Amino acid sequence: MNKQVYLDYHATTPVDPRVLDAMLPYLKDSFGNASSKTHPYGWAAREAVEKARSQVGSLLNASPGEIYFTGGATESNNISLLGAALHAPAERNHIITQSTEHHAVLDPLRKLEKDGWRLTVLHPDSEGFISAEALGSALDEHTFLVSIMAANNEIGTVQPLDELGRVAAEAGALLHCDAAQAAGKIRLDVESSAISMLSLSGHKFCAPKGVGALYRRKRGNRVRLAPLALGGGQEEGLRPGTLNVPGIVGLGEACRIAAEELEEEAQRVGRLRDLLLDGIRRGIPDVTVNGPADTDKKLPGNLSLSFKGVDGSALIVSLGDLAASAGSACTAGNAEPSYVLKAIGTPMELAVSTLRLGLGRFTTEEEVTYAIDRIIETVGKLRRVR
Ligand SMILES: Cc1ncc(COP(=O)(O)O)c(C=O)c1O
Questions:
Q1: Statement to judge: residues 270 and 295 lie in one domain
Q2: Which of 20, 186, 290, 296 is the most exposed place for a label (fewest CB within 10 A)?
Q3: Which of 105, 181, 211, 304 to mutate to test the pocket of ligand 1 (most atoms within 8 A of CB)?
Q4: Are the beta carbons of 251 and 211 closer than 8 angstroms?
């Protein structure tokens, strides 16, 4: 194989050609500003944005009017967490999250803690799960908000959202869900999971970078949100600024594709992931899988492996033409072991010998076979030079 093999789908994904095709007209002739009301350029852009809003809503079982376009999951998380806090009733001053959340959730919540909020950080079990019981015992009559991700970006753990949502709702707390890794890969349903706010990001499921969405519940227990930025009043004033029309169209198309093909793709990608694991295990001893053992409770494309006695950074460098990650993309290059692996109790010597492989839409069986050989060969070499 004379090209790079990309196995880092948790970090980002290539744009699907169908997504690119849907976007191109809005980068060329239909370049209008969706806020321009006086001519066809603006009308066409507005129509495209509203179509995309419906497509995003459909994927989540939400109404189009509950979807707001943003620049990605980091921004959606910040608007959800900080924006909701600004409207919290005085007697609800408690927030619950878990230690394996992404920094785009942990950092805004740490800020709220500094501002005087009581923050409970739950520790997941050894596979990364938060149980309904664990959440139930942390909730009290002062809990305003619970923020639990749909799926983890390192170990792929898919949380039992329906149960967590039910428990949070019974306590009168809002549930925010960072679905950056889950959206487009597994079914999400804001109704069955009683989700109040949800964040997603286009570049994690074959739409471009720099576009995302925020779901905010309006039906039933309506969520009040204050904007973090002020300006032109777009997106009901919640996310002002000229809309990224081509990006939004791309995100909409990615949601349409996911809504239609998600189950089939999950099966195909899951099979390739299992093939990859089997092949590696057959070739080398002492391989530990991090995250859920039950592959039904794990993202289909996720494989986090620790190779006893092998330095993770040396492994990544030696793998050369195989693009993967030693930890999460955001902390790559940092010699500290991943805080997610630490949180689930992975021993230090294994945490520093971890490779995160992410498979996705364009991963082929040929690439998987190649990756198996490269990993077996490289781990073997590194173990021999110890
Ligand atoms: C779980 C999770 N949340 C949030 C983000 C941030 O997303 P974005 O790049 O869209 O800001 C990421 C990206 O790595 C992620 O994996």
A1: yes
A2: 296
A3: 181
A4: yes
